[in-house]
Amino acid sequence: EVQLLESGGGLIQPGGSLRVSCAASGFTFSNYAMSWVRQAPGKGLEWVSAISSSGGRTYYAGSVKGRFAISRDNSRDTLYLQMNSLRAEDTAVYYCAKDGALGSGSNFGGQGTLVTVSS
Amino acid sequence: SHEWTQPPSVSVSPGQTASITCSGDKLGDKYACWYQQKSGQSPVLVIYEDNKRPSGIPERFSGSNSGNTATLTISGTQAMDEADYYCQAWDSSTAEMVFGGGTRLTVL
Predict the structure, then answer these.
(1) Residue A94 above 70 pLDDT?
(2) What is the average pLDDT across B3-22?
(3) Of A46, A100, A102, the CB nearest to B99
């Protein structure tokens, strides 16, 4: 069973930085692309970023490009999202997801971590 | 960033068929996926590659995708199907994964 445990969320001031993590288990982490998806309170899902299985290719939504950085450590089965220059509109639950091939969808195996950007 | 267009809400009576649409330019040329999200829970994939069901998803869930519109159909809708539904597809023009705005399905 795919298990994804997000952590590292919390309250951060505007302009600050935060790194969230996702510990994976139940599958061979190094074989799969991974993504971050967020959901602002009472709003819909928003794709944030994705990374290839090796980490060699990364992709970002326009709303976070230049501020966020996705990375992974395949030796630790862990996915990261470094978030800089945080804004109030970045407030959301951040989910990590195991990606299939393009078009095959994603598996959200965790409950997410809440990031609140507020002074 | 943009989103695919979904109706904000759809209502259906128990046992009837619910259809939720997702529209966007040339969406039929891309693979569409659908997710179900119940209140307080993480999203669950219910349709991938336009019309395939993951293991464990009931047969009453089906999908299609053609032209500019993808459609999720729930036949014989049950009370347990009440949830928010999101479509998703890769936009190759921007190299971004894009979600629809979401549709709240109410089973009356």
Answers:
(1) yes
(2) 97
(3) A46
Separation of alpha carbons A45 and B2, rounded Å: 12
> Residue A61 pLDDT > 90, yes or no?
yes
Q: What is the pLDDT of residue A101?
A: 85
State residue A15's pLDDT score: 98
Partner residue facing B49 (CB), from A37, A62, A104: A104
The answer for B 52-81 residues in CB contact with A (under 8 A) is 54
Average pLDDT over residues A72-99: 98
Question: What distance in Å separates the CA atoms of residue B74 and residue B80, rounded to the nearest whole number?
Answer: 12
Q: Is A1 helix (H, G, I), strand (E, B) or coil?
A: coil
Pair A98, A26: CB distance under 8 Å? no
**Closest approach of A114 to chain B, Cα-based (Å):** 13
Asked if B45's CB is within 8 angstroms of A105's CB, the reply is yes
Sequence letter at residue A90: D
CB nearest B99 (choices: A45, A104, A110): A45
The answer to whether the CB of B63 falls within 8 A of the CB of B34 is yes
The whole-angstrom separation of Cα B96 and Cα A1 is: 28
Contacts of A44 (CB under 8 A, 6+ apart): B3, B84, B86, B99, B100, B101, B102
User: What's the gap in Å between the CA of B40 and the closest CA on chain A?
Assistant: 9
Give the model's confidence band at B1: pLDDT under 50 very low, under 70 low, under 90 confident, else very high. Answer: low
